[in-house]
Amino acid sequence: MHDSHCHIQDEPLMSNIADVIDLFVKNNGKHILVQGTDLVDFADAFSIAERFNKLYPRLIQTAIGLHPSYFQEITVDKGITDNLYEISQKAIDKYNKYFADKCNDISAIGETGLDYYGLDREEYTEELVEQFKEIQKISLRNQLRLAKRHMLPLSLHVRGDKSCVKDALRLIAEEGDGLLRGSFHSYTGDIGLVEDILDIGFCIGFNAIITYKSGQIVRDIIKKVPVDRILFETDAPFLPPQSVRKNKHIKEKFSQPYDVKEIIQTSADVLGMNPVYLEDNADDNYNRVFLS
C-alpha cells in the first residue's frame, strides 16, 4: 500500500504524526510521497522524512513544488494587485535556490501544475485571470525543466476546464521530449483527455473522491486507466473517505495515509477486480514512477 500524494506536515496530521505513521505501517503501508506546495512547508516535509526514514527505511519520499494557487496567495489574497510578474518571479527564483540546495534529498517535483478553477472568482478581472494563467505556466515550465534535467518524476495538480488540461499537456510535450513521468493527481477533468494523459506516459492518482456519491466522474475515469497506470493517494488531510464523512461520531473529519485501504477497496469494486491484485500492481507503479 502506498500514498502517492499527501500533506502529512499539515494539521491535524502533524500533531499526531507518530500515530498516523504507525497506523499506516501496521496496515501494510510501504511508501508515502509527502508534497510540499510552497516555500513555507518544505522544511517540515524534509524533517518528517528524516525522522521516520530512520525507523522505516524508504517509507517517506519528499516532493517539493510551487502549487499554482501559491501566486494568488502571495499577491491578491494579501491585497497586492501590482507587479504580479515581478513578485511571482522572485518566488520562483527562491524555489530554484531551495531546490538546488536540497536536490539530493528530493524524490519528486510537486505539487505543481495549473489551476484555472481557482481563478473563477467574481472579483477577478479578465486581465487578472490571464496574468495568473501566464504566471502559472511560467512556473510549471520552470519545474518541468528541472524535472527533466534532474530526471525526477512529477506530481501534477491540473484543475479546470478542458483548456487547462490541454495547456498542461502541451507544456509537458514541449519541455519533456517524452522523458517526463509522474502522476496527474486527483484528476477529475475531461474524461476525453484521459487517453492523452496516458499517451504522454503519466499515471493517474485516485483518492477518496472515488468513494463519494458525487464521485461518478472518477469512477468512470478509473475504468479508462490500465492497471499499470493507476496510483493511489489521499491528499491528506483533505478529502476524507466516505466512511469518515458519514461517521457522526467523528467530530474532526480528515484523511490520513491509512485511508488508502478504503480507496483501494472501492476502486477494486468499481473495476470488478481483486483488491490485493490491484494494490500489488499499484505498488509496482509507485516503485517504477517514484523510486526507480
List the helices and strands and how they pair.
Layout: E1 2-6, H1 17-26, E2 31-36, H2 42-53, E3 60-64, H3 70-73, H4 84-102, E4 108-115, H5 126-150, E5 154-159, H6 162-176, E6 182-185, H7 194-199, E7 203-206, H8 216-222, E8 230-232, H9 242-245, H10 260-271, H11 275-291
Parallel strand pairs: 1-2, 2-3, 3-4, 4-5, 5-6, 6-7, 7-8
Level-2 CATH architecture: Alpha-Beta Barrel
Structural class: alpha/beta
CATH topology: TIM Barrel
Name the average pLDDT. Answer: 97
CATH class group: Alpha Beta
Quick one: how many beta strands? Answer: 8
Folded structure, characterized:
The chain has 292 residues and is of the alpha/beta class. The chain has a single domain (2-291), classed as Metal-dependent hydrolases (TIM Barrel, Alpha-Beta Barrel), CATH 3.20.20. The chain is 45% helix and 14% strand. It contains eleven helices and eight strands. The chain has helices at residues 17-26, 42-53, 70-73, 84-102, 126-150, 162-176, 194-199, 216-222, 242-245, 260-271, 275-291; strands at residues 2-6, 31-36, 60-64, 108-115, 154-159, 182-185, 203-206, 230-232. Strands 1-2-3-4-5-6-7-8 form an eight-stranded parallel beta sheet. α5 packs parallel to α6. The two termini are 17 Å apart.
